[in-house]
Automatic annotation (TrEMBL):
This is TetR/AcrR family transcriptional regulator. It comes from Streptomyces fimbriatus. It comes from the Bacteria. Residues 8-66 form the HTH tetR-type domain. The keyword Transcription applies. Keywords: DNA-binding, Transcription, Transcription regulation. InterPro entries: Homeodomain-like_sf (IPR009057), HTH-type_TetR-like_transc_reg (IPR050109), HTH_TetR (IPR001647), Repressor_TetR_C (IPR004111), Tet_transcr_reg_TetR-rel_C_sf (IPR036271). Residues 29-48 bind DNA.
Amino acid sequence: MGRPRTPLLDRQRITTTALEIVDENGDFSVPQIARRLGVQTGSVYHHVDGRDGIIELLRERVAGAIDVTTLDLRPWDAALESWARSYRAAFAAHPRAIPLLMTNPVRAPRVLEQYERAVVLLRDAGFPVAEVMPVIVALENIVLGSALDMAAPTAMWEVTEGAATPRLAEALDAVGGNRADRAFDLALHGFLAHARGRLAECTGA
């Protein structure tokens, strides 16, 4: 038999397959990837640096959907808000990948470059260097928490007739169908207001 025109394995196919498995199960194993691709487990290791290498490929794939040009906007708070919204949309598309990615150190160069741009944005705005990472991490907490919330059931609170929670039932009825978006807007705007205040304190503006 002649050699196949399209290679059976490459990093792109491994990443796509791993992400499919994570979207289904919340985790993956190298043997699972191999079985789905119809190859030996050892063949997968010829193309990636083990499980950690695959996780970084997943990180690059998911984060690749974030619009990094938002970090070129000015003023800085408009850039952060636009980046946060794009970041949320990218991770909301793969919510089951969030716990996996957030419990492993970030090593992927293209993802690190995105953080570099965020750091430059904040430093240019006047944030002291010691304030920069707390601002970024706090923003990520809001973004990733909201991305998970978007994957939650619409009715997260099921109030039964026998429950003594009439005010809760009233609040749930009033919130409407865009609870996750409204909660994200509230948290994001509150965060940005606080960040503006911190910058003013630090710079005396």
